[in-house]
Amino acid sequence: MDIRRITPDYAVSPQIAPEDVPALVEAGFRTVICNRPDSENPAELSARAMRAAVESAGLRFVENPVTHPTMTPERIAAQAEAMAGGPVLAYCASGTRSSILWSLAQAGRLPADEILAATARAGYDLSALRPRLGPAGA
Question: How far apart are alpha carbons 95 and 16 in whole angstroms?
Answer without folding.
Answer: 10
